[in-house]
Specification:
about 300 residues, mainly beta, Immunoglobulin-like, 4-stranded antiparallel beta sheet, 4 helices, about 10% helix
Amino acid sequence: MKQAASLSILARRGPLLAILLSSCALCHPAFPQTGVKIQLVSAQSAIVPGKPFTVGLWLVHDRGAHTYWRFPGIVGVPTQLKWKLPPGWKAGELVYPAPERTHMFQIKAQGFDRDVMLRTEITPPAKLKIGESITLAATASWMCCGTSCNPGSMELSLTLPVAETAALNAKWHELLDAERARAEQPSDAWSASVSEQDKTLTLTLRPASAKARRCRTQRDADRLIVFTEDGWFDSDKPQVIHLHDDGSLTVTLTQADSYVGGKPPQTLRAILRNEDGWLRDGKLQCLQIAPKILRGE
């Protein structure tokens, strides 16, 4: 097994090692695109002075390979993008689609097996010369795992003309819109509460309006996945789900062995994936919740 894979396995011992591996990715350009192809793309054909536009980071995975979400779980390193913009330009945060279940060997993690588009908003200065071309540069870093794990880092660039108006790039605009539609969202159709005793968290979800789509059977409930946004519960431990007669759900989660946030969080920041949708019309596959954690004495 490659050295990179051995390093990645160490990350299962805690998120702090994942941070170290993130730095390691920048030190190993020997694995520039092993298992994944990465490029910068634009939602539009040109830059309009002063008007924000969307730039995507497009990741195409080899068969059997995956990369990681912004919080990978107990293993992995998130894909990152560090911009080198000209003076007067601004870049927003890197936005990921809602997480999906993936596996680093036998360990359950939060990432993407499919080809995936990350995105950010770029705001150019208002004073740009029409007709000139601008090159935007950034350094991407990632961890790609398949039969082995490989950290990677690569300098990327995107050159666009400056124009008074800009047409949409049909291919990239469509892909970016599809990823926006997959974004996690809160909803008043469901209410959430959570209690914590020792190392066990008990999450309860209740239909709060007629808009809520209830699970029909326990088999439907067993397909639900709870993802952690901050690592307070262990992404690899079993998630025991019970469907009750009133349509409510209880999910038992296990607190992680280590937590990079310092003191215990006041809320449970989580995303719940339901492939059938959390709403009666089948929409909202990923429900974002943040209930206050009620702790036992």
